[in-house]
Design a protein that fits this description.
37% of the residues lie in helices and 17% in strands. With 551 residues, it is α/β, with parallel strands linked by helices. Strand 6, helix 6 and strand 7 form a beta-alpha-beta unit. Helix 1 crosses helix 2 and helix 3 packs across helix 15.
Length: 551
């Protein structure tokens, strides 16, 4: 059966398991859009407002599902706009495929209209970048892209689609499905050696990273930790992968981590690291562990051999799927660590439960306390972008089984709203809440219109303090009282939400939040709540004035 390249791309994506694509339409890939018209809904197109938002949605879909998030954009400006999502997918280690329209092959190297060398632009931020130069190779390249994106350390793949390749016809048949790949199992000898290191430890610690873990592996790790009395912390923004209600969960290692979490990492003598990269944020700028030979004995379990020994030389490296390793752990190891674990748990709970009331009109400690109690046990997805406000969704929630957190390890502002849209489309029955700062939300605020068009009834909580809070905190620490470039004059966020067909409401005092949140939950089209927060309340335990004075 003869078909053009655009049809072959779509047929291959459907066969591989893609169910939707996020994008902004462009004339450079009209043949692909045309082919999607005839899929009967097997491959939907979510029409976004800017390519950065579309790429964020694809990255968030990959993080939520473990399947490649598909993003389609046009050449040149479309591709460069989308690059922020590619970088985020790489730092998050999540599968994604970016399909980019490209100039015709006969025009290459002339700086034609919107021409970009995709291998040069994306070569350092993606797992693989390629360009189709023979329409008959579409099945081969799409299959390789899907496998590359999902195996080892997952990540993004970029494929350039020249216009003439999409219009050319071929007899090549689409692939009939994804390549079946068994996850790498840990060698029994490796598991035994790891258990030996744990048994001999005085202060063992488990660090969990990566997403999404399957429930069986999560349950196995939880049972092992609880039976053995070993504290568990998550790496940066992966605290949703372990039941926070467990007496073994003791916090997360990331930006602005608590002193107690730093102490756990610093004082542990054996660290069992499952699926974590030991990046800058979880090591406090590579200071908590000595480079390259840490005092702590690390057992590093990773599906990608390239991550083992990348920064820190482990006492034992295990090239295996962390989830398969968790299932192989067995029942328990005994080492008398109850007191070590108990003190770590108490410190974690104390950070949340003992936070002081916050200055200003709306107290975010009270807001988060209400949300924790109101949403306990619900099917819930929380998303956030980047900024000081992220301490509220990432530190003041207790993620129970089934709850998810989608936050960018890249520190990309604007991720939260597109991620919420993608999550709500994928899990329409879940409550999906985006936490955003007033600066953060304005990076991708136009995707409120995408949410309305897609029927994604998300709830957006805008923490409005009139400043770029993270930068202001650093500014006050380094250059006290010399405020420059960080103040914000904001639009009426609630009115903007209303203009897009969502419920919009201003919350100017703490007492008004509970009822406003119920109205947001009841809105069939989604909602935005704008919370007026004082600049002084930059962090739960230090005010802006204290940061300025160094106290």
């Amino acid at each position: 059966m003869a078909r053009n390249g655009g049809q072959l791309v779509v047929d291959c994506l459907v066969a591989l398991g893609a169910r939707r694509a996020f994008g902004v339409p462009g004339e450079s890939y009209l043949a692909v859009l045309d082919a999607m018209h005839d899929t009967g809904g097997k491959l939907d197109f979510v029409n976004c407002r800017q390519e950065g938002g579309a790429a964020f949605m694809a990255a968030a879909h990959g993080k939520l599902t473990g399947e490649p998030g598909i993003c389609m954009v046009t050449r040149g400006p479309g591709a460069t706009n989308a690059s922020i999502g590619v970088h985020t997918a790489m730092q998050d280690s999540v599968p994604m495929i970016l399909l980019v329209g490209q100039i015709g092959t006969e025009m290459r190297e002339r700086e034609a209209f919107q021409e970009v060398n995709y291998r040069a632009v994306f070569g350092t931020m993606a797992k693989w970048v390629t360009e189709i130069d023979d329409v008959s190779r579409v099945p081969e390249i799409l299959s390789r892209a899907w496998t590359t994106a999902t195996t080892g350390r997952p990540g993004p793949v970029v494929i350039a689609l020249p216009e003439d390749m999409l219009m050319a016809e071929t007899e090549a048949a689409p692939v009939d499905g994804p390549v079946p790949v068994f996850l790498p199992e840990p060698a029994p000898a490796a598991v035994a050696e790891a258990m030996g290191l744990l048994v001999r430890a005085e202060r063992p610690l488990i660090v969990i990273g990566g997403a999404p873990w399957d429930r069986d592996a999560q349950d196995a790790l939880k049972h092992f930790a609880e039976a053995s009395d070993i504290p568990v912390i998550s790496s940066f923004r992966y605290q949703d992968q372990f039941d926070n209600g467990s007496d073994c969960f003791c916090g997360d290692a990331g930006v602005g981590m608590s002193a107690a979490t730093k102490a756990l990492l610093g004082q542990a003598d054996v660290i069992l690291a499952l699926g974590t990269r030991f990046g800058e944020n979880m090591t406090d700028g590579y200071t908590l562990l000595q480079v390259p030979d840490p005092v702590q004995k690390i057992v590093h379990v990773m599906a990608s051999d390239r991550e083992i020994g990348k920064v820190y030389r482990p006492a034992l490296g295990i090239h295996a799927c962390p989830q398969r390793f968790a299932l192989a752990l067995g029942e328990t190891v005994q080492g008398g660590w109850a007191d070590w674990r108990r003190k770590a748990r108490e410190a974690y709970l104390g950070f949340i439960d003992n936070a002081p009331a916050q200055p200003g009109p709306v107290d975010m400690v009270a807001v988060c306390t209400h949300l924790r109690e109101r949403l306990e046990g619900q099917d819930l997805v929380l998303t956030n972008g980047a900024g000081n406000f992220t301490v509220w969704p990432t530190r003041f929630f207790r993620f129970r089984p089934g709850m998810r957190l989608l936050g960018p390890q890249s520190g990309a502002m604007g991720y939260g709203l597109p991620a919420a849209v993608a999550a709500k489309i994928e899990r329409p029955d879940a409550t999906v809440i985006c936490f955003a700062g007033d600066g953060d939300i304005q990076m991708t605020m136009q995707e409120l219109a995408t949410a309305r068009q897609a029927g994604a009834a998300v709830i957006v909580i805008v923490v409005n303090n009139g400043t770029y809070g993270t930068i202001r905190a650093h500014q006050e620490r380094e250059f006290p009282t010399r405020v420059s470039g960080t103040e914000l004059v904001n639009p009426d966020f609630a009115a903007l939400a209303q203009s897009c067909g969502l419920h919009g409401e201003l919350v100017s005092e703490t007492a008004g939040f509970d009822a406003a949140f119920e109205r947001a939950l009841a809105s069939p089209t989604g909602a935005l709540l704008e919370l007026i927060v004082d600049k002084e309340a930059l962090t739960p335990y230090r005010t802006l004035s204290q940061i300025r004075s160094g106290s």
